[in-house]
Amino acid sequence: QAVVTQEPSLTVSPGGTVTLTCGSSTGAVTSGHYPYWFQQKPGQAPRTLIYDTSNKHSWTPARFSGSLLGGKAALTLSGAQPEDEAEYYCLLSYSGARLFGGGTKLTVL
Amino acid sequence: EVQLVESGGGLVQPGGSLRLSCAASGFTFSSYEMNWVRQAPGKGLEWVSYISSSGSTIYYADSVKGRFTISRDNAKNSLYLQMNSLRAEDTAVYYCARAHFDYWGQGTLVTVSS
Questions:
Q1: What pLDDT score was predicted for residue A96?
Q2: β-strands A72-78, A17-24 pairing
Q3: Reduced to 3 states, what is the DSSP secondary structure of residue B45?
Q4: What residues does A108 pair with on adjacent strands?
Q5: Do A89 and B44 touch (CB under 8 A)?
Q6: CB A20 within 8 A of CB A104
Q7: pLDDT digit of tens for each residue in chain B (114 aa)?
């Protein structure tokens, strides 16, 4: 079974930019993995930020963007806000089955 | 307003069974694929299962294959997860989530312990 990898933790300064990545043990992540990005704050259900690599929901703040970068899926946060401090998860699809990454704890400090 | 409400969680002994339900409202349930996702206490998210809008296509995570069964009743706007041969490692909050994971329920806690 594939393994989806994320940075365990990252720190960004308020107003700064940070990129979270999502890799696959099977090789390069492509649009065919339909990458998703989720934000989860303590005690809350996850909230989807990005689907199908780069598509945003109506509630996704404009400062978040999704892309493919160097064989991985990437979530870029430009202009970090204190409220962006959270756990971020990616999800990849493998011919029907889905796998989450282990999550990245993002600290805004 | 889209709403997903899970129920059926609780305490069960190892080897036991439990059936989770997810009641959907605010959208045409029969038109949407659905998923179950779980989260063990203090741990990350784990995708559990997927079912197509008609129920004809189903996928499971390897960790639950052969023990869990996903199903739906479009007439009742409901999604189900039948969980058999439960293990301690199945202890988690179980969420139902719509198609592109755009809407999630609040979750129901399943605790497997003797």
A1: 86
A2: antiparallel
A3: strand
A4: A12
A5: yes
A6: yes
A7: 999 999 999 999 999 999 999 999 999 999 999 999 999 999 999 999 999 999 999 999 999 999 999 999 999 999 999 999 999 999 999 999 999 899 999 999 999 999
Cβ contact, residue pair A98, B50, below 8 Å? yes
Query: Minimal CA–CA distance to B52: which of B28, B75, B32?
Result: B32
Alpha-carbon torsion (B30, A47, A88, A16), positive or negative: positive
CB pairs < 8 Å spanning A and B: 54
CA distance B29 to chain A (A): 19
Residue B80 has which token pair?
């189900």
Residues in A touching B45 (Cβ below 8 Å): 38, 40, 46, 89, 91, 100, 103
Kindly state whether B40 is in contact with chain A, defined as any CB-CB distance less than 8 angstroms.
no
